[in-house]
Amino acid sequence: MDFWFSISLLMLKTMFMAILNPFFWLFVFIVLLQYRRLVLMEKKLFGQPINNIWKQTFYSVLFGIIGGVFGSFFLLLLGISFDSIGITYLWPVAILLLMVNPRFLCFAYAGGIIALASLAVKYLLPFWPELENVAFLKGLTGIHLPSLLALIGILHLTESFLIFISGHRGASPIYLKSPSGELLGGYSMQRFWPLPLMGLLGMVVAENSDIFVGGVSMPDWWPLLGSVMNPLGNEELVYLMVPLIAVLGYSDLAVSSFPRSKRIKTAGNLALYSVLLSALAIASVFSPLLVVPAALIAPLGHEFLIRKSNKDEFSRPPLFNADSSYGLQIIAVIPDSPAEKAGLQCGDRLVEVNNTRIDSEIDFWNILRMHYYRVIFKISRRGREINLPVQIYPLPVSRLGVIFAPGRLASANVYVELTNSSFLKNIWRRFSAGRS
Predict the structure, then answer these.
(1) Which tens digit of pLDDT belongs to each residue from 275-296?
(2) Which domains are present in the chain?
(3) Model confidence, pTM
(4) Helices (H), 86-128
């Protein structure tokens, strides 16, 4: 018990140092700017913001700290040393992938490529020993692949945990065109979490070094992943806890499911991927050949999850489309609005206003203006019809606080179109436009 208390206290102290780091708050500011961009999109689509920037940022920081504790525990448990995972290779490759496509900015792709490159160089070395004279290639062979692949697994396990507990928060309603050209209603699920993390740095020191003062002796089985450093007889392998900062992001679309159910499925699939990758990484310490499937699963498994999620989402019947047979479907209710106070919920279908059937959004707003002071909505909710009195006055009618799904809309001229662009393509497009 004393051991776990001491090690947990050291871990939390290190994380607290990360929170005090100015770079952590710089990342918080960047997260705030991302939420500001999303709110501006809401204004463009619906004429009013649906989510609060400050509230979104606060919850991102709160859940980010929780996620930091979660991730740091597993980093400590496995003993992943950040000086042996090829950080100097990881970031440049990730940035190059960003230029190809923004969604490739993920350690699953960069780490998988580096792991495969390292394996290829190790395989070729017996045939071409001169490759070891190239510093870049020699550095690849020095990467501890089990630690690199386990790091990818732990980061994605942390992401799956954060998606599960908060991935549905702040989902923005959107109008979008499906790949077939159909106008749909759905939800854009975008979350960002700044994470204060505890990282480990390994170093070999003399047995009687002063660095042991205040340290904690670890069990004999630790580190679980081993190390590339091999101390001699009068030396000891020591790990230092250092504060680290990371940002995790989640971007998804919910078209045929509501955000709450979508995040559960996404988190579950991502957790399975993470556990499988981490298990293979750990097993490769004892059976080195297993590092090959682990290196392949890192990028290919991640890509499979994304493609499967998108395919499943658009292959099922959409929740909100332009073929509604009657009434108006509510895709979102703005917080603290008259609609929310009256009890309206997303997914409700508005059938009548003051006993008058609603056939279009134009009809709805016209009736609402005529019966401004006393309004009763008849809605259909999960097969039941409910009458709800709504108090709008003294607010203007436009502040009712409902967003309708696409259908017989008067304002469906603004929508999101799914594209697959990249930084390099955008530069070429601008260059070509400038020449013409």
Answers:
(1) 999 999 999 999 999 999 999 9
(2) 3-85+144-315 (no CATH), 323-404 (2.30.42.10)
(3) 0.88
(4) 87-100, 107-124
